[in-house]
Amino acid sequence: MRYRGGVSERLFAYGTLRRGFAPDALAGLVAGFDWEGEASVRGRLYDLGAYPGVVLDPTGEYRVQGEVARLDAEAALWELLDRYEGVDPRHPGAGLFRRVRCEAQRTDGGFARVWLYEYARDPGGAALLADGRYPRARRRGTLGGPAGRTR
C-alpha cells in the first residue's frame, strides 16, 4: 500500500513487519509500504520465541535496529496492523503489544516521529538481543502474528 501523498503516518518496523520478514499473509502488504530507510530507537529487543518484542528505554544504552515506512493514515490499514499485533485500542494494556509513538533516529542522523509496536508485558527470562537486530534466520513464510501466537 504505497503512500499516495495525502495524510501519512510513519511506522518503525523491527521484526515481522520488516521487508523480508513478514508472514505470507502480510508479505504483499508489507512489500508495498513506502520504505524510507533504516533507523533505530532506544530500547531493548527481546527474543520472545517466534517473534521479537521491544521495550522502549529513551535513556538506555541499547538501540533497536529497524526500518521506517511512510503509510497512508487510513484507519483500516492501522486496524489491520493492530489486529496482526494483537492490540486492542480500547484496552491498550490488555494485548501482547501496544502501539505507541516514539522518535526513531535515521542513519543520516535525522529523526522521525513514528508508531512502534511495543511489547506490553514483562519479558521475564526472554533473551536480550543486545545487537538490537531481529535474526535473519527468522525470515517470512513460517511465522504468524502475536494475535495468532504462532509468530
Describe the structure concisely.
This protein has 151 residues and is mainly beta. It contains two helices and seven strands. Mean pLDDT is 87; it is low at 140-144.
Instruction: Indicate the proportion of strand residues.
Output: 35-45%
Under CATH at level 1, the class stands as: Alpha Beta
Radius of gyration, whole Å = 14 Å
Biggest sheet statistics: 7 strands, antiparallel
Mean pLDDT: 87
What coarse outline follows from CA principal-axis ratios? globular
The sequence of SSEs as H and E is EHEEEHEEE
Integer tally of domains? 1
CATH H-level superfamily title = Gamma-glutamyl cyclotransferase-like
Low-confidence runs (pLDDT<50, min 5 residues)? 140-144
Please count the helical segments. 2
Number of strands: 7
Level of helix content? Answer: 10-25%
CATH architecture label name: Roll
Helix-strand category: mainly beta
